[in-house]
Amino acid sequence: MTTVAMPVFSKQNETRSKGILLGVVGTDVPVKELLKTIPKYKLGIHGYAFAITNNGYILTHPELRPLYEEGKKRRKPNYSSVDLSEVEWEDRDDVLRNAMVNRKTGKFSMEVKKTVDKGKRVLVMTNDYYYTDIKGTPFSLGVALSRGHGKYFFRGNVTIEEGLHDLEHPDVSLADEWSYCNTDLHPEHRHLSQLEAIKLYLRGKEPLLQCDKELIQEVLFDAVVSAPIEAYWTSLALNKSENSDKGVEVAFLGTRTGLSRINLFVGAEQLTNQDFLKAGDKENIFNADHFPLWYRRAAEQIPGSFVYSIPFSTGTVNKSNVVTASTSIQLLDERKSPVVAAVGIQMKLEFFQRKFWTASRQCASLDGKCSISCDDETVNCYLIDNNGFILVSEDYTQTGDFFGEVEGAVMNKLLTMGSFKRITLYDYQAMCRANKESSDGAHGLLDPYNAFLSAVKWIMTELVLFLVEFNLCSWWHSDMTAKAQKLKQTLEPCDTEYPAFVSERTIKETTGNIACEDCSK
């Protein structure tokens, strides 16, 4: 929520020159309503818009985290005064911040390290920033476009009849936080979902609906082009030999226009991860400020390759034991090569691991292909993802852990030989646990009285000390006057520095033996 206010002066002829202030008028505007005005589909997969005040404080930014969770969600102490330099921290010289605070118009570029998946993974890219001031306000607006995304667009044409036919499929959905149509202008439209509004608009049944014609045309094209995948998924579901043990549970597709297709290979009640792709699963659906996590990660991989992920520390806590795999779909135009969609599946972890062990045994049976067998009791085999987290291990409790915590010496060698790269990250919005001494509530109220009583007792003790035994002194200084103290853990704002790791894609060959010190089976 942000508040916009302005003074109201008298406009009567006889008082206009005196500047008589009549009052102040203002209104509260939810930030999410501001985000609806941003054409997310034009910004690309990683692109975003942001705004700051003339003091450099953030009005809206996808990396702003004003809340923290401690039992329930609470506002951070400094949630309304987070500086732009705290989220765009790679700009060490504050070039971007100073230009926007000074209300300039221009462009700025820098390499950025964007964290995803609760800060444990990192995407390294180059952003081009475009900024200007917003006339008549104390705000400046910025737009960040990632190189390779958001600059080139793919346009296609289909008829309204074709598009409407494919939009009717029950497995099709649209990003409800995107503004395909403005459903807030008229009360009779406010109950409509974006998909319902588009259908009414295209059929001409709601002439008062205001919609983004360009975006809707692209949605229709995506609906038609992606329709054949439904038939492919259906054929797989009918061919029981392809998925006899129901290891693959969900297939999904998302396009650059926020259109999604989802196919279940098992009943909804049989899904291992019941929350996946639901409205509450904010990381994995199209939002007002970001594309799904599986889409963003796939877009940064080599075309045609899959990216995998599982819940962190899967083997040690009670989490959904699933593997999510996704890959990007690009046009075969080497000059521009825009990512137009991403497709993926979610499968049971046990099914995925079984496939891996089967493949490793097949490799071992081929002469010269695999000199080491994972069935060897003296060997530990691991499958790790591109950020160094364990996907498969003979010890199930290690699944989802960082490989460096399990095999630190081996991870160090992988870093030394260039297979992985260490990246230092900073979080200037973190909340850290701190121990504080807290007094018992009742004793706190009586502190002045207890201090006075203790002083009187000390004087009386000194006066009669020659008449009594020393144990009387101990009676006067008994536990009755002690102040109860206990340690209490609280969350406080702090700055943190931590590492992340990413596989080095320029290293083509990572097969071989490493002479490793301090290694153990």
From TrEMBL:
GO terms for molecular function: voltage-gated calcium channel activity. The keyword Ion transport applies. Residues 179-520 form the Voltage-dependent calcium channel alpha-2/delta subunit conserved region domain. Gene3D superfamilies: PAS domain. GO terms for cellular component: voltage-gated calcium channel complex. Pfam families: VGCC_alpha2. Keywords: Calcium, Calcium transport, Ion transport, Transport. This is Voltage-dependent calcium channel subunit alpha-2/delta-3. It comes from Carlito syrichta (Philippine tarsier).
